[in-house]
Amino acid sequence: MSLPGLFIARPVMTVLVMAAIAGLGVMAWMHLPVSDLPRIDFPTISVSANLPGADPETMATAVANPLERQFSTISGVDSMTSSSIRGSTTITLQFALDRDIDAAAQDVQAAIAATARRLPSEMPSPPTWRKTNPTELPVLIVALRSETMALPEVNELADTLIAQRLSTLPGVAQVRIFGEQKRAVRVQADPERLAAMDLAFDDLATAIDRANSNRPAGMVWGPRQAWTVTTDAALDRAAGFRPLVVAWRNGAPVRLEQVAAVFESVENDKTASWSRDTRAIVVAVDRQPGSNTIAVVDAVRAQLDELGGRLPAQVEMEVLIDRSQPIRASVADVQHTLLLTAALVVLVIFVFLRRVSATLIPALSLPLSLLGTFAAMWALDFSLDNLSLMALTLATGFVVDDAIVVLEAIVRRIEDGEDPATAAREGSARIAFTVVSMTVSLAAVFIPVLFMGGLLGRLFQEFAATVMIAIGVSGFVSLTLVPMLCARFLRPGARPHAEESGGAFALVERVYASALDLCLRHRRWVLASLAASLALTWAIARQVPTGLIPNEDLGQVRVVLEAGPDASFADMCRRQQEVAAIVLRDPDVATFMSSAGGNDGANRGTMFLRLRDAPARTATPEAVADRLRAAVAGIPGVIVRPQVPPPIRIGGRMSDGLYQYTLQGTDSAELQRAGQEMLERVRAIPACVDVGSDLKLNNPRVVVRIDRDRAAALGVSPARIESTLGAALGSVQVSTIYADTNQFQVILEADPASQASPALLGRLRIRPDHGGALVPLEEVARITTAVGPLSVNHQGQLPAVTISFNLATGASLGPAMAAIEAAAATLPASVSGGFAGAAKVGQSSMAGMAALLVLSIAVIYVVLGILYESFIHPLTILSGLPSAGVGALLALWIFGGELNVFSFIGIIMLVGIVKKNAIMMVDFAVQARARDGLDALTAIRRGCLVRFRPIMMTTLAALMGTLPLAIGLGTASNSRWSLGVAVVGGLLLSQLITLFITPVVYLYLDRVQEAVGRRMRSEVATA
Q1: Of 18, 244, 784, 888, which is least surrounded by CB within 10 A?
Q2: Residue 431 contacts residue 409 (beta carbons within 8 Å)
C-alpha cells in the first residue's frame, strides 16, 4: 500500500498525526525566542591596558607587543588588531565562528597572566578583558541627569547602583559610562612654590601617599575582652588633605595647601557627555557576542524599572537608545507579511477552484506546514528572526504547490467519472513521484547553502534549513492529509475546473495551446531564444551593481566627530555643542546623546541619534546623515562623519567608516608614506565619502632630549627624569580614598599655568638619586617640539594603516571596491593591502556566490538524475533557469536594486521554484510515453496542456507569496525587498518562457537520448 493509500484508509490516524503536528507547532511558536538575526556573531574579546602618561609608541612597544605575541599562540584566533593611543592600548581578538567564547576567554586570561612579567611595572592595574566587540553599538543607552545634584554624585549612582547590577545580567558583556565623572581629589602643585620649599614632585607624591593610610591596626586582647584598633589615618575629602605636612623647613611645617591647590574634582576631567544639550551621565549596555538582543534588553529594562525606584527624586533617568525596538518592529512586520502572504495564496487557490470545500483542502496544508516547521525550529534551537520568518514567508508561496498538484490530479479523475475514494487513491499514487521529485529537488537547492562557511554561511544556514523543513513537511502533508480529505469531502461530479473558473481561464488555455503549437513548429527559433537568454543573463549581470548586505532603516545614526590633533578638550566640547545645536534643529531626530574625550582622545567625540518612528519621519536615515553632513560643513576645525549602523557589524576594528582597507608593512616610514598616498586616492573616488584614516602623524609633542653625561654628573638618572615628568604631567594616582561603596583617586599634577607652554617644562626641579639640591630639568635636558603619531595600530602584530570610508548615497559596494583595488595597484612592493571587516566579507562573498549558484545547479542535476534515472531529463528540467536569471537581474536593474547576498539567495531559490514547472510537464510526458506508448511530441504537448492549470496555480501562489516582500513595506525591509524583487522578476519571465522552451528542449534532447540509445544497442548487438 502506498503512503497516500495508508492515510486514506486510516482517517483517524491521519487526524491525530496532523493534530500532533499542529499542537507541537503552536507550543513551539509560543516558546521560540525572538531576535533580529540568527546567532552569527564572531566570538570576540576586547583586551584593555592602561599606562597613564605613556605616548602611543611606548604603549605599542611596551604593552601591545608582548600581549600580541602571547595572544598569537591561542588557537582559533581569526584576526587580531590593536590600537595604542596616549596612555591606553586596546587589542581586539576575533575568533573563528566555531570557537566557544567562554573557552577563548579562559585562554585570553591565561595569556595575560603569562605576559604579566614582561609588562611595565608602572601599570596601575593588569590588563582587563571583556567578551564584547568594540565596534558593536550598545543595545541600550540610558541618560541620568539632575538639576540639583552634582555630576560626580550622579556618576556615583550610575556606577554603584546601576552599572554594577546590570553587569551581572546574562548576555551583558559590559556596562560603559560615557562622560564618566567619578569623584577624585586633585592636587595641582605649583613648581615654583615647590622649588622654593626645596621639594620635588616625587617628594610630594611620597608624602601624600604616607599621610593617607588605610592599613590594619590590629587587636587588643584583654583577659576578658578584645578590642579592635582603628585609626583616623585615612582621609576622604580634599579639606582633609590641604593641611597635610609634606615636609619641614627651618623647623616649620610645609603644608600641602602652601605648595598646591587641593580641591574636589573628577578622575578624568577630559571627558564629558550630554543628553541632547544637557550635561548628563550616560550609561551604555553592550551585549556579549551571540546573545539575544531582545532578551538582553528585556532583562536590563526589568532591572532598570526596579532600580528606578531607588534613585533620588531629583535624578531623572531616560532611555535614549533601545536597539530592540527596531528589531521588534521588523519581526512584527515580517509576521504581518507572513499572514498577508498566506491570505493571498489561499485567495489564488479559491480563484482557480471557485469552491470553498476544494479550496480548504490545500489551504489546510499551509498552516500545518508552517506549524510543523515551527516545531522543527524549536527542536533545532532556531529563533523567530527576520531571516527565518522571511524563509517562512517565501515558503508560504510554494508549500501549497504539492497540495495543489495532488488535488488537481484527484479532481481530474473525479471529472472523468471516478468516485472520490478511488480517484483519491489512484490519483495520489499516480502523482506521488512527481510530488516527491518536486519536493526533494526544491529542498536540494539549499544543500550547498547549509555547507557555506564563514559569516554568510552562518547567516543563511538557518534560513536554508527553515525552507527545507517547510518543504519537507509540505510534501508529507500533501501525500497524507490532502488525499484523505479529497476522499472524504469531495463530491462526485464536483468541477473545480476551467468551466467554473469562468470563460477567461478557458480562453487563456486556448491561447496557450495555439502559442504552444506555434513554438513546436518553429523549434529552432525557440532554441535560439534560449541561447539568447544565456547571453542576456551575462550582459545584465555586468550592469547590475553588487553589494553585501543592504542597510536597513533601524531609525539610528552614529556620528563621529574629530577636531585637529592639537585641539584642546575645551575647544572640542565647544565644537561638539555647535554640532549638537544643528542636530537639535533636525525635525527627524527624536533624541540623541553625545560624548567627547575619554578613551577616544581629547580631540574626538561620538553621537548616537535616535530618529523618529517611520510614520512620523520625512526622511530615511541615509537622507538624515546626508543632511547633517551638509549642515555641519560650515563648522571650522571639526570633521563630522555620520554613518547609518549596519544590521550586521563585521570586524573588530573601530573606525570612522563602515568599510575599511588596511595596509601593512614592516617599514613604518614607507608604510606611512603609502598610507597617506592611498588616503588621497580613495578620497578622489566619487563612491566613497567620509574617507578617513587612523594614520595621524601631526600630533604635537614635546621631546625631552636628555644630556646623559650632564645628568650623570649631577646624579640624575633618566628614570628619575621620567618619574618627575610623569608626576607633574601625567595626572598620576598617588593615593587612594576608601569609601563605603567605592574607591577614589588622589591625583597629582602640575598646575595648569605651568603646563601652558612647553618652554615652562624646563623649570621643573628634579631630586638627584642620591639626594641633594634640586636640579632644573633644563640643566640636564634640551626641550624641543615635534610631531608624532596620535595612535599606533597593528594588525596581526604588524604595523598597519587602515583607511575607512562610507558609501555615497546611491553607490554600491562592488564598484567602490573595484576602484579602490585599482588605486592600490601601484603600492610599493614592501606594503601589502587588503579589505578588512565588512568590505573583506563582501569581497569574498562576491567571489563565492557564483560558485554557490553553480554548485546548487549541480546538486539539482544530481538529484533529478537519480530520481529519473536519466542524464538527459535533468537538462530538460533545468532549461528554464537562464530565463529566470534574466528576469531576476532585469528586475533588479530596472528598480535600482543591487546584486547582494539576499538577492543572490533569491536567485538560488528561483533554481528550485522554476524547475517545478518543468518537472510537472516532463514527468507527465515520461509517464505517458511509458504507459500509453505515445510519441515524444504528443506526450510533451499533452503534458503541457494537462499541467497548465496546476502550473499557473503554483506559479501565482509563489508570486503572491513573494509579492509582499517585493513591495518592501515595514521596518528593515530592504533585505526582504532585494530578495523579493529577484524572485518576482524571475518568476514572471520564466513562467512565460519555460512554458514554451521546456517542451522544445525536451524534444531535442529526446532525439539525443534516442540516438545515444540506438548507438549503444548497436554496439551491444555487434559485440
Answers
A1: 784
A2: yes
Quote the mean pLDDT of the chain.
85
Q: Which pLDDT tens digit goes with each residue over 899-954?
A: 888 888 888 888 877 777 788 888 888 888 888 788 888 888 888 888 888 888 87
What span, in angstroms and rounded, lies between the C-alpha atoms of 273 and 178?
A: 6
Rg (CA), the chain: 36
- How long a stretch of residues is the chain? 1023
**Cα–Cα distance, 331 to 384 (Å, whole number):** 8
- Residue-wise burial string across 594-627, b where 16 or more C-beta atoms lie within 10 A, e elsewhere: bbbbbbbbbbbbbbbbbbbeeeebeebbbebbbe
Q: Give how far Cα 880 sits from Cα of 985, 999, 1000, Å.
A: 14, 11, 11
Q: Which three cell numbers stand for residue 796?
A: 596581526
> Rounded to the nearest 5°, which phi and psi values hold at 161?
-90, -40
Report which of 887, 868, 970 is spatially closest to residue 927, judged by C-alpha positions.
Answer: 868
Q: Mapping DSSP to helix (H, G, I), strand (E, B) and coil, where does residue 833 land?
A: strand
The pLDDT tens digits of the residues spanning 618-659 come to 888 888 998 998 888 878 888 888 988 877 777 666 777 888
Determine the residue type at 77: V
Most confident residue range from 176-190, 447-461, 980-994:
176-190
Q: What is the dihedral of CA 1006, 1007, 1010, 1016, to 10 degrees?
A: -120
**249-258 CB contacts, 8 Å cutoff, 24+ apart:** 249/197, 249/198, 254/197, 254/199, 256/187, 256/204, 256/207, 256/208, 258/193, 258/197
Give one DSSP letter per residue of 247-296, joined into a string. Answer: EEETTEEEEHHHHEEEEEEES-SSEEEEETTEE-EEEEEEEPTTS-HHHH
Residue range 401-428, pLDDT digits in tens:
788 888 878 877 887 778 888 888 888 8
